[in-house]
Structures are given as structure tokens and as C-alpha cells.
Amino acid sequence: MRILILAIAWLMVAIGIVGVFLPVLPTTPFMILAAGLFARSSPRFERWLLEHPKYGKPLTDWRREGAISRNAKIASVSLMTVSYAIVWFAGPPQLWLKLLVGAILVACATFVLSRPSPSQ
Asked: Where are the transmembrane segments (predicted)?
């Protein structure tokens, strides 16, 4: 079971890295999930991820306080807005589908904006 959890954790890291380059795919949720899976399968890889120069601080802030930095909130909501504009103007013609995507993005943005900022 440990090997399966470790493999899924590495898959989450890979998807998170792809998300760095694709604006419609978020990075942070996959890294948070990977850190949690590494905690159950490999303390060494968990430590590596939590000490990573780019991902370590946001993961530690999330784990400690459930916090998201102001810059991350701005980037997240901005990219959601751009993504929705693309869906609205170039996406499927069905109005109900556009509205459903909009409702999901509003719910996601509300969640992101409702998280506290890190205390440091």
C-alpha cells in the first residue's frame, strides 16, 4: 500500500509541475495533496517537498494555518477570470454549460479568498 501511495504522490507532483505551465491547471492543490500523501508514505520526500524553495512556504503556510498568500490569491482569481473569459467567448455554445463553469469558478474563488493570509 505504501508503494501505491508513494506512486500517487509522485503523480500529484507531476500534475502540479504541468500546472506551472498550463494556466487552467492549478499547481498548489496537487502539491498539497502530494505533501499529504508523502506524509503517509515517505517522510524523506515529504521533507523534500516542504523544504522546496518554490513550493515549501505555501505548503507550510497551508498546513500550519490553512493560509494562502495575498499574491497567490490575486494570481488564482485573476487566472480564473481569464479562463472564464476564454470559456465564455471561445468555449462550448451551450449557455447552461458556460453558467455551470462560471458557478464552479465563483465557488472556487470564494474559497480561495476566504482563506486567511499567512501570519508572517
From this structure: 6-39, 72-90, 96-114
